């Protein structure tokens, strides 16, 4: 049975992952990626466009399914060796979170809904994943290879 996840990263970092067909979370840590399995749905929430930039974006910026394989370590050539998982990204548009807050199960009726975003990766229901996918006008996605 597949699960669904929200990962958190700046839109700039999400664009790099989409272009490379991968995801990474929590500054490249392996442990969170080991909770994710092939076929799981992943949606990225981007609080900002660029890491460290104070101007808020607050949008869902990518949606996809994890493909077969395990987390692996990449060499970025600058001494940074983050762990990644491969993802088949859907064609989708960025969607602001604000109009969805009252309808998402993880946030509805919760004053401090953003607290869990601080963990960088958390599981969400099928309802929330599908609601976000519709808001992003994401293409239909079958399970991963």
Automatic annotation (TrEMBL):
This is UPF0310 protein LZ012_08170. Residues 4-134 form the EVE domain. It comes from Dechloromonas hankyongensis. Belongs to the UPF0310 family. Signal peptide: none annotated. It holds the Pfam family EVE. It comes from the Bacteria. Transmembrane segments: none annotated.
């Amino acid at each position: 049975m597949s699960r669904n996840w929200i990962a958190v990263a700046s839109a700039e970092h999400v664009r790099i992952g989409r272009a490379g067909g991968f995801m990474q979370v929590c500054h490249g840590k392996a442990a969170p990626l080991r909770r994710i399995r092939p076929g799981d749905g992943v949606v990225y929430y981007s609080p900002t466009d660029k890491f460290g930039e104070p101007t808020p974006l607050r949008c869902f910026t990518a949606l996809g399914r994890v493909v077969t394989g395990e987390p692996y370590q990449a060499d970025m050539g600058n001494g940074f060796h983050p762990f990644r998982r491969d993802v088949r990204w859907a064609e989708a548009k960025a969607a602001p979170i604000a109009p969805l807050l009252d309808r998402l199960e993880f946030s509805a009726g919760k004053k401090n809904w953003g607290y869990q975003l601080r963990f960088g990766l958390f599981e969400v229901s099928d309802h929330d994943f599908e609601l976000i996918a519709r808001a992003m006008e994401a293409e239909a996605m079958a399970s991963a290879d």
